[in-house]
Amino acid sequence: MTIDYKNISVYFTVSGKGETVVLLHGFLETSEMWRDLAPEIARTHQVVSIDLLGHGETASLGYVHTMEDMADAVFAVLQHLSIEKAKFIGHSMGGYVALALAEQQPQLFEGLCLMNSTFEADTEERKALRTRANEMAKTNFENLIRMSFANLFAPQSKINFKAQYEAALNIALKTSLQGYMAANEGMKLRPNRFEVFKTLNADKLVIIGKKDTLINREQLLSKIENTDINFAELSEGHMSYIENISELTYFLIRFIEK
Predict the structure, then answer these.
(1) Sequential DSSP letters for 117-143
(2) H/E/C letters for each residue in the chain?
(3) pLDDT of residue 258
């Protein structure tokens, strides 16, 4: 399904019945990443999965998609569906988008799970990497995607889950140059949203992988200590929905049914 939004189409899917769970994919992903998880959740809940700006079947608005821009598009879909309350699960960039939405529309949230994601802003080093990547993307886009994507998995996972890795990579390779660059610029601009997350009146969960090189585990754990934010750690890398699917499903179902 699609809605018209600012002269583009925003794509989303709806399945199941009951209280709503909103699934937000990460950078270089689409709503297709939830194909194994969504049916499990849809047994007891209504599941809404949205292609974020510049990803999947949702077009780009410009050459900078801030997390607030993406959150606005998500909110437009939820308004279209008359959804007033939901639990949100955001993978990586999807978590950043969910946090931006939580800052704007906290009343929507019954729960928020940051899955392989963080409330921290980019470090200066990470910002510089994104800037370099966007320059490289203009001339060597496919190789850049392949290189970036490889870093998301624990080394052994690329062997153990070769078919799933290739399928996810093929989806990533369909991302447009504009969608890639706009999201990278937007992630660079995002602020630290720890206070937004900490003070959100909702169930809160952070899930990370022990071998995830994109998340600063120690920094994250020190921040959430002595808060009401729950934490779960899986054995592998950034792509838990491939690398740790059974354990991830267990934690997400517990979070949803809480």
Answers:
(1) --SSPPPHHHHHHHHHHHHHHHHHHHH
(2) CEEEECCEEEEEEEECCCCEEEEECCCCCCHHHHCCHHHHHHCCCEEEEECCCCCCCCCCCCCCCCHHHHHHHHHHHHHHCCCCCEEEEEECHHHHHHHHHHHHCHHHEEEEEEECCCCCCCCHHHHHHHHHHHHHHHHHHHHHHHHHHHCCCCCCHHHHCHHHHHHHHHHHHCCCHHHHHHHHHHHHHCCCCHHHHHHCCCEEEEEEECCCCCCCHHHHHHHHCCCCCEEEEECCCCCHHHHCHHHHHHHHHHHHHC
(3) 86
pLDDT tens-digit map of 145-179: 999 888 899 989 999 999 999 999 999 999 999 99
Half-sphere exposure of 214 (CA within 13 A, CB side): 30
pTM over the 0.90 mark: yes
Q: Are 88 and 48 in contact (CB under 8 A)?
A: no
Q: Domain limits of the chain?
A: 2-257
Q: Which of 240, 247, 231, 16 is nearest to 113 (CA)?
A: 231
CATH level 3 topology of 2-257: Rossmann fold (3.40.50)
- At 127, the amino acid letter reads K
**pLDDT surpasses 90 at 131:** yes
In 3D space, the residue among 123, 79, 70, 80 whose CA is nearest the CA of residue 100 turns out to be 70
